[in-house]
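Changelog note: in this version the structure field was regenerated for every chain. One regenerated record is shown below for reference.
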Amino acid sequence: MSGDPIGRLVRELSKLPGVGQKTATRLAFHLLRAPAQQVRDLAQALLDVKERIRLCSRCMNLTELDPCALCQDARRDPHLLCVVANPADLLAIERTGSFRGQYHVLHGVLSPLEGVGPDDLRLRELLQRLQEPGAQVREVIVATSPNVEGEATALYLARVLKPLGLCVSRIASGLPIGGELEYADGITIARALEVRREM
């Protein structure tokens, strides 16, 4: 089966993250049963993403336009800059509709064990952006995940950015809405207590 088109499709699909051999086989047979136009649309969407999507020269988000629509939006607050690890994090924040500032995407977090250092992230572009003439950013909000790598990245950013005279803040972390206190881990409870606010 390895030389035929079905086997090739299964092999290619199984290269995707989180897709094992069984899932790849199920997807391949689903595509075989799907209408030809649906498969063509999927193939064209894959090609379009590879050929037309690039990094925004300003915020490093994935975009077809340069600068991206978020950077072009004059209604966004130029004094607030939210730094995220990847484009998916940016989308998660945007979905809330609660942040109206600008963004910068690092495309990763510091992870010495995996060989990811500051030079592997889009930190140089961030520093250039913050130091360019006419830069209006007053506060940088570090919105990396509250895990070891995200915390290390946040601490590194604070150390690098504070000498520029900027306010550097970190998103709060703690208990999720609807979560049960008794099932939360100790670190999450401790963090929730640390970032408490007056009612």
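Spot check on this record: The mean pLDDT is 92. The radius of gyration is 21 Å.
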